[in-house]
Amino acid sequence: MRWWMRIGVLVAALAAASAASADTIDVNGVMRSYIAQLPPARPAPLVVVLHGKTQRGADMITRTAWPLIAKRDGFAVVYPDGLNNAWADARPEERRAGRGPPEGTDDVAFIAKLVEKLVADGTTDAKRVYVTGISNGGAMTMTLVCARADLFAAGATVIMNLTDESAAACHPSRPLPMLMMNGTVDPLIPYEGGRGSSYFLAQHQRLRRKRCGGDRSSRQEPRRSVHGHANFLALPNRTRRRALSRQQWRTSHARPVSRRAFPETRRRPARAPERRYRRCRYDLDLL
Fold first, then answer.
1. What are phi and psi of 239, to 5 degrees?
2. To 10 degrees, the CA torsion angle through 6, 12, 18, 24?
3. Strand partners, 179
4. Is 67 helix (H, G, I), strand (E, B) or coil?
5. Terminal CA-CA length for the chain
């Protein structure tokens, strides 16, 4: 969807719902952003809605029915933004896909300070604060419930399970009701628990290797072809000349490489595969 269409959908959603506004809050010296949709009657129940990886809080407004339901039932909703469009949940780094937030990010402190701010100014009823999230936001929901159960009345997650590592580190101060909504045939987040594996993941990895020159961790040694080089024609002319005798150079099919074959970089064609790899380091979104 084009950017102007996204803006149009966002404006339409906000117009149909009650008044919403974007704001920031300082958390340990870092300005964190969020969108708040507040009802006229206060104090009101509050729902904290956490987006998935690669998304922002505004995506939860345009892609879900939370704005309309909040207007209908008269409760407040906040849509926080994760740094780098991701949340620093309690899962270990190897269990996350794609780029995460900057090192040292404290999203528990961010959400806790946001809730405390809305309670202190009379917007929110402290006894009726709820948190929910999808995928990476669901993992952050579990992290919040485990770390700050005193702030929330209940939590709900969508397409996310509690990992073994997160469960071992989860020590809530009190029991909380939890709702977990997963698909029974979801291969990435198995309904019965355990590690996800799927045909779709294999297809994604195959596509990434094809587009990005392969995954460094699993890439096989390239097959050597012409004159001991995997891609002799892609080498600079000077390098190829050194590898060949004068007669071989004259008779070799190793002609100069056309720069048109490397549209992403015209000055350094030999490094084009590496440049493509750096642009394709992201893994499955939402996780």
1. -65, -40
2. 20
3. 156
4. helix
5. 21
Contact 238, 232 (CB under 8 A): no
| Mean pLDDT in residue range 127-156 | 96
The CATH fold of domain 3-196: Rossmann fold (3.40.50)
For the beta sheet containing 20-27, the strands, ordered from the edge strand earlier in sequence to the opposite edge, are 20-27, 30-37, 76-80, 44-50, 124-134, 154-158, 178-181
Pick the more confident residue, 218 or 130.
130
Sign of CA dihedral 33, 37, 42, 43: negative
Q: Kindly state the tokens that stand for 124.
A: 């929110």
Strand segments (E) across the chain: 20-27, 30-37, 44-50, 76-80, 124-134, 154-158, 178-181
Would you say 45 and 75 are in contact if contact means Cβ atoms under 8 Å apart? Answer: yes
- For the chain, domain boundaries: 3-196, 205-278
Distances (CA, A) of 269 to 57, 66, 256: 40, 49, 11
Specify whether the CB–CB gap between 108 and 136 falls below 8 A.
no
Express each pLDDT in 196-229 by its tens digit. Answer: 765 555 566 666 666 665 544 444 444 444 444 4
Token reading at 57 = 């809080």
Closest by CA position to 139, among listed 172, 85, 98, 180? 180
DSSP-based three-state secondary structure for 268:
coil
Helix, coil or strand: residue 179 = strand
Q: Report how far residue 160's alpha carbon sits from residue 140's, in angstroms, rounded to the nearest whole number.
A: 10
**186 CB-near residues (< 8 Å, 6+ apart):** 159, 196
> 256 pLDDT exceeds 80?
no
Give 61-106 pLDDT, tens digit per residue.
999 999 999 999 999 999 999 999 999 998 877 667 677 899 999 9
